[in-house]
Amino acid sequence: MAFVNWLKRHFVVIAGLLTLAYLLLPNVVVTVFSFNNPKGRFNYEWQEFSTDAWRDPCGVSGLCGSLSLSLQIALWAMLGATVLGTMIAFALVRYRFRARGAVNSLIFLPMAMPEVVMAASLLTLFLNMGAQLGFWTILIAHIMFCLSFVVVAVKARVMSMDPRLEQAAQDLYAGPFQTFLRVTLPIAAPGIAAGALLAFALSFDDFIITNFNAGSTVTFPMFVWGSAQRGTPVQINVIGTAMFVVAVLLVLVSMAVGNRRKRQRT
Amino acid sequence: MAAVTEAPPLAPTPAPQKKPPRKRGRWMPYLLLLPGLLWLVVFFALPVIYQASTSVQTGSLEEGYQVTWHFATYWEALSEYWPQFLRSVLYAASATVLCLLLGYPLAYLIAFRAGRWRNLIMILVIAPFFTSFLIRTLAWKTILADGGPVVGALDALHVLDVTSWLGWTAGDRVLATPMAVVCGLTYNFLPFMILPLYTSLERIDPRLHEAANDLYAKPSTTFRKVTFPLSMPGVVSGTLLTFIPATGDYVNADLLGSTETRMVGNVIQSQFLRILDYPTAAALSFILMAAILIMVTLYIRKSGTEDLV
């Protein structure tokens, strides 16, 4: 009975932690199987411990090429979507203009549409234009679907900004350009950075839209997809694990730095 | 670009002292909006129109396609692929419900019970995103492998007997069954449920819980009458953020399912990229888009949170 009471009292904690375990289990499997030495072409069954793949992460032809292509596309897509999205966000928050409703729905719709629909319709456009599918069509598509997410992230930050700070700058004889560069932009920076990071992550991990519009160009997710048909090299798990570790470390370090600054201020 | 370089000289034009911000303000919003909106119009809105036109064309790859207003394509596509449509909606709806049931306790835990662990748990929820979702989906092949520990445990508990009887699994297999696909969909879209739920739970004033407690409400009553209604915006946006992408997904059905679990996304993908039957593929994609827009509009209206977006 005591146990049942305990279970009742901590139900939320137990259920929540079980969900967390469900979320993290695949990452554990990916990490463990990066040390596997599979017998056949597929890396789904545990055979024996080996660090071969870690010592030779680029040992599979095409893997590291696809990785660097994905990084390049993600960087350019991040840049393009962040610039265009930030401009839209500022216009939406700071100015009155006609057709605001139409603009808002044009930004909202790409987020409310299944990826496969956007992917298929963009492909019909490219086919009709006779465009050569490859790097540029992927980049165009990625900027298109990242744009809305940047707008949302930047808009939230700009909206919570105190407009009096800019007025103060102008009272102190700062020109519009100077005000923007030295007051507005630094305050909006966290929102812009959040939008940019989101765009990078979305572009880097995108599969469905790339699958339709890549032609024969192979990005990293496309490489993984292809290997699921032909045979999964252990190196895929190595890259997956390495990305996970690096990203978590970056987050922890940035949090530690942030905490330290906060403590120094108080 | 020419317009942008012309903008600064506008400031010192006659009578700038009177209303300079207004003069600047008249053109600025359009200049800021133009490039981004042009991108969305050309590469998002225009393609949807192109797709609609493709769906009523007839012809072949060799001879080219012409718009012939051949609406029968829609009828043929629906009558041939209605099982895949139905399956998409069923799988996505099951995954959404599962996401809500699994995600709510975790969001609640982070919002009210985690204390100093809050940031760590938050990072752990987002962390899986750092590994490509395809690699993580492939990991489910290992987890649900035939004769593996998970399947063995489910078999020993006679869960598989029940699920097989319901048609969710087949015999002593979980892979290549509807259950594996729904499990993968749930897993992939769970963070999209947890994050909005957490945002709306976190905004709830904890004093409301104390007030409910002071008024002799049991914890379950507090949840039913206070917490859950106040978290409705999170529930609505969470369900939308899981249901919409799950309906169009074909990755889980392809990697974890079989030919018996093909969803409409799989059909669109293979029609477009392998069979090259563009009109049928365009019609299917158009139907999917329309169906989702209608469902989402009805849902938002029903749940009464129109100021959501």
Automatic annotation (TrEMBL), chain A:
What keywords sit in the KW lines? Cell membrane, Membrane, Transmembrane, Transmembrane helix, Transport
Residues of the ABC transmembrane type-1 domain: 67-257
Transmembrane spans: 12-35, 73-93, 105-127, 133-154, 183-204, 234-257
- Bilayer topology: Multi-pass membrane protein
Q: Where in the cell is it found?
A: Cell membrane
Residue ranges the record marks as coiled coil:
none
UniProt cross-references to InterPro entries, sorted A to Z: Bact_Polyamine_Transport, MetI-like, MetI-like_sf
- What is the superkingdom listed in this entry's lineage? Bacteria
Tell me where it mainly resides: membrane
As for family, the record states: Belongs to the binding-protein-dependent transport system permease family. CysTW subfamily.
Name the PANTHER family on file. PUTRESCINE TRANSPORT SYSTEM PERMEASE PROTEIN POTI
User: What is the protein's given name?
Assistant: ABC transporter permease
Organism, by scientific name, is Streptomyces composti
Q: What is the lineage of its organism?
A: Bacteria, Bacillati, Actinomycetota, Actinomycetes, Kitasatosporales
UniProtKB/TrEMBL annotation, chain B:
Query: According to its UniProt record, where is this protein mainly located?
Result: membrane
Q: Which InterPro entries match?
A: MetI-like, MetI-like_sf
Q: Where is the composition biased (Pro residues)?
A: 9-18
Boundaries of each ABC transmembrane type-1 domain copy?
85-299
Signal peptide range in chain numbering: none
UniProt keywords (A-Z) are: Cell membrane, Membrane, Transmembrane, Transmembrane helix, Transport
Which Pfam families does this entry report, sorted A to Z?
Answer: BPD_transp_1
Query: What stretches pass through the bilayer?
Result: 27-50, 89-112, 119-139, 175-198, 281-300
The record's subcellular locations are: Cell membrane
Q: PANTHER family, per this entry? A: INNER MEMBRANE ABC TRANSPORTER PERMEASE PROTEIN YDCU-RELATED, INNER MEMBRANE ABC TRANSPORTER PERMEASE PROTEIN YDCU-RELATED-RELATED
UniProt similarity note = Belongs to the binding-protein-dependent transport system permease family. CysTW subfamily.
Protein name, UniProt field: ABC transporter permease
